[in-house]
Batch of 4 targets.
Target 1
Amino acid sequence: MVIIIATDMATAITATTMSGKRMNLPLGKGRSARKSSSRVDGSTERSTGNETAALYRLMAWLSPSFPVGAFSYSSGIEWAVEAGDIRDAASLTDWLSLMMTDGAGYCDAVLFVQAHRAVGGSDGAALRKVAELGAAFSPSKERHLETTAQGRAFIEATRAAWPCDAIGMLRDVWEGAIAYPVAAGTVCAGHGIATETALAAFLHAIAANWISAGVRLIPLGQTDGQRVLAAMEDVIAQTASRALSASLDDIGGAALRADLASMRHETQYTRLFRS
């Protein structure tokens, strides 16, 4: 028989056997271990809480229900469908993959990253440069409308519900039109959301909106739309990786047919979308 007696020692407890022999046993999961575990758990809880808040905000800001009017733009996809360039899920996947890697998706990703870093570094001059280029680098009138209208709406909505100093910083350094990726990158940085996480969510939202337009225009079933989104996963990951290591000098596109589509859409006879 063993009688265990708790002591005040932090590293052991005393066990007395019936023979009177005393021995020290390791504390194991005793009081001190519980205190240490509590400290670790507290840190984990704070980290988890920050990640949960970041995820919650990204899901809200990049949701189709967030009031930026993304559903009303097709990025030229409407013309591409009418012209026969996009006919089914396979051709939609090919078109969007090129837009993401060598068109608007990549350019917006670079602008997002650079705006995020400028805010994170409290570099007003850099933020102004990004904002100016974001407003200027649009291949068509409708593309300019699409990005700046969404950018303005994003700033207004987040300022009303999720205000942060970064929004004021952007307004202080730039009074012109604000491109959507610049607005989103600024706000994400202002709320301390990591660049990699925020960028992946942002590009997913862009792709999802493109696919939504394609589903309505071709038309496609919802399951086909999800297949296209699944096929875009690696494309988005690769685009994000490139953008994270790029500079503003690396902005440029080769999705010429998509740019022409956005121009042709301006005079398209029957239109459901604004771009």
Target 2
Amino acid sequence: MNIDFPPPSTGIYNNAGSCRRLANYLEHEDLERMQKGIYTEGFFNLKDDNLYKAQVIKEIDSNIGQLLKTDAKFYAMHVSPSEKELKMMGQTEQEQAKAMKRYIREVFIPEYAKNFNKGLSAEDIKFYGKIHFDRDRSDNEMNMHCHLIVSRKDQSNKVKISPLTNHRNTKKGAIKGGFHRTAFFENAEKGFDRLFGYNRQLPETFEYCNTMKNGSITEKLQMQEREIHQQSEKKRDIAPNKHILKPDFSTRQQQASASINHSNTIDAVASLFSILPSAADIAFSNNPEDEQPLRRPKKKKKGRRIGQ
């Protein structure tokens, strides 16, 4: 699961003014798919689907109480599942889109609100989502992902919230609360696994990827040790199935005893056949009742001639 916050810029993610430009951009895929007669998804929020772009722009642009002209008015977010995760969410685009909206509503936004440590809930967050099904520069068969526009102010238009702040649960000073992005990514990932029953392997986790990219040498080595340990545990779980092919001592003893008995039987049969007449003997016997073996006639001795 890849979650990121595109940095504000002078382009479509410029958040110092209206969100109109970003909202227009999020509809570009709809126009392409509609021309081809392909299914599209409208904007959605915590409770409603198929909302119009005009409503999105109006609601975000008007929720800017006490913000300065240069202050951020909204933030953009991307939620992009991997192909393996998408397969757990559904086989068709409609199934995946429905699952994505469920994930955003039941896991992502509640975790987002809770992570500010200001007593906020999902109902306090003003946001609009837009699902896309294609992704530039991707060779994957499945590319469904979600764009979010989240207001800088809560629903009451009183509380400022920013996922880009460097404060983390501060209790003193002008800024209370904060936003722990690492904790948010990890909790959103775990929530996905619980919701869809996804068995995430260690190399797929945000913790692993973040450690291998940004951790110290010691932290990377410890993470690799965890990976090796989990692989060993996995092999150990599979090992009992292999033991079925290897009989225990008592079974081997029984097999050896059976083998000995089998050999004795063969020897006994062989001895029996050794005392019976062979097929050749029966064939050369003219009298079936004659049990005496045939004897060759003796040669007559030649007498000596006189004069020799």
Target 3
Amino acid sequence: MGRDISKSIVLLFFGVIICCVIYPFVLWVVGQVVCPFEANGSMLKGPDGNVVGSLLIAQPFTKDEYFQPRPSAASYDASASASSTLSANNYALRDRVAHTLGPMAAYRNGKPVAPDIEAWLREDKFQGSPHIVAQWADLHNGSAQGWVKADATHGAYVDEWAKAHNAEVAKWIKENPGTPKPAAADLAVLFFESFSKENPGTFPAGVTRKGADGKDVTTIEPVKEGADIESTFFDMWRQDHPDADLQDVPGDLVTTSGSGLDPHITLQNAQYQLERVASKWASDLKRDPGAVKKEISQILEAATEAPWYGVAGEPFVNVLKVNLELRKKYGAMP
């Protein structure tokens, strides 16, 4: 018995040494010698020499000067890889897709849809009835509450509104006795209904101005144009204009990947975003949009890859890699 135990202990010892020490060490050495870049996470450095991300994991880019990755159900968190699992008839999917498309949708002739969405909102009629913003809040309670929760300034704005509308809030509490002390999000629909009547044809959004101390100060004000309007009301505008002949969009522009971390987008997706990216850089740099667009097209062409050297699959580009090339060519944004 003792002999068997001693043999087992020796076997366990050598098994641990081989599998937990020698084998990992050999793999580490091979990785550092043969492919150190890949073995260390495929990390890329910016112009300043600091690591900015990995070629293998997507990260968000929100500025118009840069190409944007696929939407992520995991919020680009590598520790929480996940797909959206939303079905095609799920409102949450439709709402997210509409928010993405609003600022970038275009007609077949290339004309952007955004100005027409803003003009439609100013007319303040949806399917023949007035007060578009109030109708939006009534139809999309979750989205209205989401707007309030999205930013601390939004909640503070609704709180200030509640103080100035005691009678309306008191009536709401009477009709909802289960919520005697409503939070800002609880009053979201009531707020938007009141806002729509008091500020027809507008939507509350952040406006940034210089304060007395020279610093930027953002306040919520009624606005008649901007990305908030274009994204929030694209779906309702589309319902009011079912015959509008719009361009098709690449599927990966509005759908998440299985992991939520896909660092690539199709070349078609990148080309769809090209007009926005080139126009913004041209505006920032005070250069000819056509010349800038040509330069960025060349960057995309140089960065294009394809599975099996183009034998199978769609051509694609790595978003981080392309955006770094833009940063190197044009410098930091003004």
Target 4
Amino acid sequence: MKSHPNKKFKFHNESTELKRFIGDDLSYPNQKNFLEIFDYLEVMEDYLFELEIRNYSRNTIKTYRSILNNFYNYLTNEKELHDDRLVLRAFKRYIRHLIRDKKVSQNYIYLVTVVIKKFFEFGNIHVLEEVKTPKRTKSLPKSLNEDEVKSLINALDGYDPVDSASPYSNYLKLRNKLILSLLYSSGLRVSELVTLQTNSVDLGERTIRIRGKGEKDRIVLFDDATRVLMEEYLEKRQFDSEYLFVNKFGKHLTPRYVQMMIKDYARVAGIKKKVTPHILRHSFATHLLKNGVDIRAIQQLLGHSNLSTTQIYTSVDMQTLKNVYDKAKLL
């Protein structure tokens, strides 16, 4: 991470306006607040702009901005921020505040710590060097079984809307069914799905070219059932748009819309589990692994840089493990 070009704040070895932070000049007359000296908000904007240049996703930048703004708002209520020791204590109090008062998860504490430390490093502020990054919890991701996926995709089959202009018109039913089928059969992220362009789809090869996280390209597959749905959808689509999935205004859908739509379909299908686009992605990976697909192939389809990330996404039920174990015939 490059340091902020206009700020050179090395508390431990530079004789600057920040020498109060060094702690070796008790007679320093102007005990300026850390936020004034560091120019927190300006450096934050430079930092987020740097992340944008480095092709961080919009969602990631939005999350980083939220974390840094929340920390800034907390610091504005701190009266004593005149040296590095006090800033360090303020950070630790903030973490304690998140745990005790906000009841946030261990993984969120991990993220907050990483983001703020990286931000300080960008600004050449070294007061958090002694802070150790907490461990993340690795819980087994939830997924749907094959029958639940079928019920979800087919939830509105046989439903005939009386009013063709209703949200459940035949066109919308077809579009939403295709969305569900594509999310599951390809393992797409919802952010990838809503910005999917029509010219990225090859119906003959049943492939889609995806521009994923970090601007990395990959090819994903979809099954024959999804191809049939897509051919019908493209024939009946009501808008000529570069995007595959559009709303009634011809604009591409939002992740929020897809999330709410899936929730509604799960309710109609009688599925009691929480169902999200990400859970369909989990289910895709889990079912491939369960049916003998090599985990490295799954890694490629999901667009993961590290195999360890794919291993978190995949889980196999105990009966499948027992079957594989018994077939191995150790003796």
